[in-house]
Amino acid sequence: MTRRLETDEPAGDETRPEEEGTSLLNRRSLLAGAASMMGTIMLQSVTGSAEAATPVAQDDPTRVPGKIPSPYGQRSAFETATRKLRAQSASLTPLQDSHGILTPSALHFERHHNGVPTINPAHHRLLVHGLVDQPWTFTLDDLKRFPAVSRLAFIECSGNSAIEWRRPTGKTVQETHGLTSTSEWTGVALKTLLREVGMSPEASWMLAEGSDAAAMTRSLPLDSVLEEALVCYAQNGEPLRPEQGYPLRLVIPGWEGNTCIKWLRRLKLGRAPFMTREETSHYTDLMPDGTARQFTMIMDAKSVITAPSGGQRIQQGFIEIRGLAWSGRGRITEVEVSVDGGRSWQRAVLQDPVLPKCHTRFYLPWRWNGEDVILQSRCQDETGYRQPDHAALVAVRGTNSFYHYNAIQSWQIAADGRVSHVQS
Ligand code: CO
Question: Of these four, 131, 321, 366, 418, which has the most CB atoms within 10 Å of its CB?
């Protein structure tokens, strides 16, 4: 069940409210809104801008020539969505303000272990060595001569939603889920580069190393990454942002974000994991019996309602419930939404395109009648894996873990329309 372009045939069994011949928005509140907008315009004509921080709009943009073209674009001064900083080492994407499946490069989440380096691309090199016939040092110009590959893929920090293990309340979706973003990534296929240097048949693991001040380094099993990994120099049609690894980043669709090594400077092939600091100091999952899961690389299926979500306030009447679902194992095949705290579920509409290892946008038309309710979403991917609820996840993993939290998220709507983050 997917939402298609309007030129396509109707997608099937979902009921879209505009097909029912009913008004989506309350007619009286629309009229009231129009009246208050007129009031605002008249007030601004008399007094000018009400606040210094508010950009000044033209009273009538049809009466004055607009701005001339600019060399590099900016968003409207009226738009204010920003990443939210977490300590000195991360920032979170404002999912509550996002539309569609792409994340603007300027709002892609960040996570780095010792800051964002400033790298001159003319001096940057990628060394590929170890179990290869011919070790080689590539410049960026060299890499751009290879056949280019582009694909859309989400990158999610394995620590995304980590606070949910201990179940705090009162958070926004940016705070609970903002460490995931989707971009179009462009570069060279890893297998093309490894063919060029002559990968030894004995090679089974690859070390990837960044040139940041942490020299961020991970060991990757070659069998699993060879088919899809990209050595990327571009994001959303332009060179990578510095925070996303400029000038070179490894992207492994569906794998935890830390394996997508930024500021990539070295790939080394070997016979075993290299057991770097990051394989133990981070990125292991402590189980209830005291053992730890190691090399847990794939991000399991997960979904969240982005609107209405924590911190927002809604009005009675028509609400389009909107959210994102994604899986590191392939395509999302189904998203269901509950408006009664999980007692019953309805299939959401999936917006085309539904791509593997990429954010998928879902919608469910709904009417809120002013009752206290709990909204939830759950998804399934093409392997048949179903997103668990909190109790099912904790039954398997305990509560010692920090990484890989993917349980169903609950938003409570109170009678006054305020939306808050709750346990359920
Ligand atoms: Co992991």
Answer: 321
In tens, the pLDDT along 72-115 reads: 999 999 999 999 999 889 999 999 999 999 999 999 999 999 99
Distance CA 246, CA 107 (A): 16
* Span from the CA of 102 to the centroid of ligand 1 (angstroms): 24
CB 207 within 8 Å of CB 274: yes
Beta bridge partners of 267: 128, 208
Give the range among 279-283, 303-307, 388-392 with minimum mean pLDDT.
279-283
Which domains are seen in the chain, by residue range? 90-286 (3.90.420.10), 302-421 (2.60.40.650)
Contact 325, 360 (CB under 8 A): yes
Protein residues near ligand 1, an ion, with CB under 5 A: 158, 296, 403
> Measured in angstroms, how far is the CA atom of residue 74 from the centroid of ligand 1?
37
Distance between CA atoms of residues 40 and 280, nearest Å? 58
Centroid of ligand 1 to alpha carbon of 224 (angstroms): 15
- Cβ neighbours around 398 below 10 Å, total: 15
Distance CA 56, CA 48 (A): 8
| Cα 329 to ligand 1 centroid, rounded to whole Å | 14
Give the H or E element holding residue 43. helix 27-47
Distance 115 CA to ligand 1 centre (A): 22
Cα–Cα dist 83/185, whole Å? 20
Instruction: For residue 302, give the amino acid letter.
Output: K
Ligand 1 center–CA 37 separation, angstroms? 50
User: What's the 336 CA to ligand 1 centre distance in angstroms?
Assistant: 26
State in Å: Cα 405 to ligand 1 middle. Answer: 10
> Cα separation of 205 and 175, whole Å?
35
**394: helix, coil or strand?**
helix
* Amino acid present at 203: A
Q: Residue 331 and residue 214: Cα distance in Å, rounded?
A: 34
**pLDDT digits over 343-352, tens only?**
999 999 999 9
Q: Kindly give the distance from the C-alpha atom of residue 279 to the centroid of ligand 1, in angstroms, as a whole number.
A: 9
Distance 283 CA to ligand 1 centre (A): 5
